[in-house]
Amino acid sequence: MKFNIIAILFLFLSTTVYAQRPSPDQIPTDNGELTIQPIQHGTLVLSWNGTTVYVDATGGAEAFEGIAAPDIILITHAHGDHMNIESLQALDTEDAVMIVPQSVADELPGDFSDQLVILANSENTDQSGISVRAVPMYNLPDDDDSRHPKGWGNGYVLNVAGKNVYISGDTEGIPEMRSLENIDVAFVCMNLPYTMDVNQAASAVLDFEPTIIYPYHYRGQDTEKFKELVNTKNESIEVRLKDWYPGD
Predict the structure, then answer these.
(1) Coil, helix or strand at residue 213
(2) Would you state the pLDDT for residue 14?
(3) Once rounded to an integer, what is the mean pLDDT over residues 50-68?
(4) Which residue, of 4, 78, 128, 154, is most buried by count of CB atoms within 10 Å of its CB?
(5) What is the torsional sign of CA 48, 158, 173, 77?
(6) Which residues pair with 158 in a beta bridge?
(7) pTM score, two decimals?
(8) Which secondary-structure segment (H or E) carries 144?
(9) Residue 170 contacts residue 76 (beta carbons within 8 Å)
């Protein structure tokens, strides 16, 4: 009887996690489907061809219930809502490569050192058939008071079977974002005072014109307004709104 109660409780908790998690999307590539699974805030999972990529894994192991263990973990920077050591230690990361900036490598426990691929802005690596390029993420103005100084963290551009996926990390509408080209899917942050508001985010997105844009990391911001600002000027950009704060 006790075992049955525990099993039922586990099933209930797992079902609750699945029910709260936003539904995944699938993007066709030159070789199969790329699955996009929002998790929360700045955390997401990309899956393609048997390879699973965790981005800024937070929320503990329970946030990833039912999702395959990571083959690649991308970490943008060392703030706690992006680099969460407790979550990394709770997850099955034994076979994962961790792609990080030096600032993150400096903060991670030594147990992870053999798994690290350290990239500076503009450097790249190929892992499991996915090309990963680190790109700048920083606040404006880039000065001594910046919450995210230039070079401290990484945004990333992934090429997955011909599809270019941009993950902004914590940034403002910097020139390096505005000059991106041929981005098929983009995840762009927008929350004050740490990144930018919807107006600056929309302006930047209109400059680099991704095919699909997901606003993420947007707590407290009006994403419907962001969508309106983008599509009023360019209705060909597909703005996909997901609930990145389930349970709030």
Answers:
(1) strand
(2) 36
(3) 96
(4) 154
(5) positive
(6) 132, 165
(7) 0.92
(8) none
(9) yes
Phi, psi of 94 (to 5 degrees): -55, -40
In Å, how far are 94, 154, 173, 232 from 206, measured between CA atoms? 40, 22, 11, 10
Residue 182's SS3 state is: coil
Which amino acid is present at 158?
L
The Cα–Cα gap between 161 and 48 comes to: 9
Are the C-beta atoms of 233 and 209 separated by less than 8 Å? no
**Which has the closest alpha carbon to 191: 167, 216, 208?**
216
Candidates 151, 145, 4, 156; CA nearest to 72 is 156
Q: What pLDDT, on a 0 to 100 scale, did the predictor assign at position 240?
A: 98
Beta bridge partners of 201: none
The alpha carbons of the chain give a radius of gyration, in whole angstroms, of: 18
Interhelix angle 223-233/198-208, rounded to 10 degrees, is: 40
Sorting pLDDT into bands at 50, 70 and 90, what band is 247?
Answer: confident
